[in-house]
Amino acid sequence: MSIEWYLVVSAMIFCIGAGGVITRRSPLVTLLCLELMLNAGNLALIAFSRMWGNAEGQVFAIIVMVVAACEVCVGLGVIVAMYRRRLPIDVDDMRELHG
Amino acid sequence: MTTAAWLVLAFPLAGTVIIGLGHRAWPGRMAGWIGTLAILASFICSIVVFVNLQDRDEHHRQVTSTLFDYADTVGVDAKLTILVDPLSVLMMLVVTGVSTLIHLYSVTYMTGDRGFSRYFAYLNFFVFSMLVLVLAGNFVPLIIGWAFVGAASYLLISFWYRRRTATRAGVKAFVINVVGDIGLMFGAYFVLREFATLDFLGVFEQAPETAVNTGNLVAGMILILVGAFAKSAQMPFHTWLADAMEGPTPVSSLIHAATMVTAGVYLIARLWPLFEVTPAAANVAAIVGAVTLFVAATIALTQTDIKRVIAYSTMSQIGYMIMGVGAGAYAAGMFHFMTHAFFKALLFMGAGSVIGAMAGIQDMDRMGGFRRAMPFTFATMLVGGLALSGVPPFSGFFSKDEILAWTAQRGGWFWILVVAGYVAAFLTAVYTFRMIFRVFGGEPVPEARELEQGHLHHAEVHVNPTDGEVEDTDVGFPGPEHFVAERAFPMKVAMGTLALLATVAGALQIPEVTHAIDSFLHPTFEGSRYYESLAPSESFTFIGMAVGAAIGLGGIFVAWQLWSRHRGVTAQLITRLKPLYALSHNKWYFDEIIDALFVRPAAWFGRFAQQTFERLVVNGAIVGGASLIVRAGSAAVRAAQSGLLRSYAALLVLGVGGVALYFLLQS
Amino acid sequence: MAEFFYFLCAIVAIAGAIGVVALRNPFYAVLSLVCHLFALAGLFLLLRAEFVAFAQIVVYAGAVMVLYVFTVGYVGGDDESVRPWHGPAQKGVALVFAGMLFVELCLAILGSGLKALDGEGAPYEAGFGSPGQIGELFLTTFLFAFEAASILLLIAAVGAVVLARRRGAGRVEADRMTFTEFMRPIGTGTTAEAVGTRDAGINLPAPAAEPEREQLESGRGERA
Q: Which residues of chain A have pLDDT under 50?
């Protein structure tokens, strides 16, 4: 299997994730799509690591996983806080940071 | 000696500064005494200069002294130089002398006015500017002094600044003066162009070598004449002088009778070398002077405001002076200037006294019979009137006749001017004594009766004498008190001195007997084509004198008949000569013509500029347009900041795509 | 053989991804992601990254997704209503942008651009991708990254607790407020508060009494 296959899959997952971020209105699902994108990146990293025969890519991928976990943690914490305050859980309704 | 000359300038300047800086703090009439003393000191220094000048050898009587260089570059030598020579010393003596007396008069006249200190600061400033003008040694201080006297005139005409008529008159005077200033400046430019120097003595040295009536010089001299006419209220720049009577009477006396309005005469006399090589301009001066003296005399016949009669009389007499110096009779013109300063200032002072008795009213229709109530004023005004009418042995007789006799010597069409001069002299006598008979003759009016009983009429309600608007006596308006000469010693001193001078000054230049002015001024006019050549023969002189005296006395007789003996005749005359009367009473419609020709278009243009151009083009298109573009641009950019998370994400993805595309294309 | 597994995992991964994006119910979306993660772990195994695959399943699909499930359960996953678009993020736009990006990336990958792509990859060494090798790398070359990642995890944990805890008692839980009102700090000492036109807490004014309803009811009562 040449490496391009994996990279194409990674690209496809990345783009699907990007499309999901743009499309979905619930912040929960937006975070899920972000996860998709991160995973796509991970796949690319692992693929390249295999290509070079260098395990550093996998170390990188683990760190990415760590970061993704933290981000999910905090993001979900924010969503829970919003839910607690009875704010609308809708990305379109929160637009006070406008010009 | 030049130190004394600089001191002549320094004292009024010091007076202005000292009075001006503390004008709120000076108690009582202190500012008035300071001002008077400053001018008195200046007068004493002028006498010192005069004595020193006479000590010198006759051919070394033109002394210059430079204080500093303003600029000496690109062919323009601008220095602060004074030129002390007989002409400027004569002007200096008259200006400081008469100013001292008028300051003295003003100390009483302006008592009680809330702007007392401000008045004396302005008056000292005026004297300083006039002296700068007179002492100027090149065109630069001349122009500076010229502009300053215009400013001082404006400040003093609109002295009672809360009167709308006064401020409008001040603006009118200033605008016409500025027109003259521009003429003077451009004229100086043409002189510079011709002679490459601004210095008077330098220019005068080169003048005899230039061709007659060169283009540069004709243009330059005509422009300088514009300046002279505007300052001296000659036609067609004369309309400001009558309105300038809005100022306090001593101001009219000093500025608009004795000194500022004679600046044009001085200018022409000073620049005589240039005028003699430009006969075109000199002839223009003579003609304009003659026209003015005649027209102004006709106007003065029908005016009812006492100050305006005297104002038009001033205009007329300055016409004589201009005609004289334009025709080459320099000494005669300057002599008439001196005597005119004396008797005209005196007439104005007397008018001020009468106005005080009338508690501010200036309308001659309401005056009458003051001779018993105000004997001193009556006597002095009689002296002034006789001098003005040219009755021997008063000074005006000698000076006016000398001008006419010398001008006649030019021959040719100058005879027309001389005849006009004699006719106007007749009219002068008529209107002068019309004024005197109306004010002092006849039945006493209530105010006069009050004064006879020892009580000065006091106005309950103060009104603007021009338009009758009711006003109070607060700051910006005349003070509550009025003064008559009979009760004020300073006024008596001033008027008495002037009356004495008006009587005896003629002795300075009795034809064939004394020629003090002639010989005194000779060093200035050395080399002039006309200075000596125009001297008339003895017989001509005596015939002229006889004619002049007869005319003067004839005019007085006519006035006596019309306004003293048969009082109703004037009304019949007015109805019979209605168009002539209308022409004279409306001042030959000059105001209306100038209003239609210049003022209305200017006002229309201003309105157009403000309402259309300013509002639509500048504010609307340029300013509004610029801000509209910015606002539209920022609105367009602001649309991208919607706050929507998803649109931001979309833009992010788009951006990443763009970057990837860039790198793709690169490789 | 490898190709078969590759295609299986790849298709499941992509299907899971599409499921995340397309499913309306958030809970189903989470489950779809879990599926996707498993498939991705399969792909990792195909690439000889054993430890990472294992970590993916245990940590990612195990812990993080469980957290997600809990949160979705708590917050509630109502089906998203299909609202007409508010901003420039309608599906068409998303399709265009994402599609464009995908095309570019494919061009980059498959075109002659990335010449460094070696078809078969490096020869396999034993122990490549094993936990031992990864651990060695972590504790020697990437020690700093390792420690930093630990601290990051700590911060994230503390942060999540701080964010999600209940704040002070005795405050009136008002009805739906806007975000601005929520962000307004308590008691800033503005004049509006002093005068009383604005509440100094987040206490919103009580709903106004509804006399109309009473009138309506009474009216109805009368008629009835």
A: none
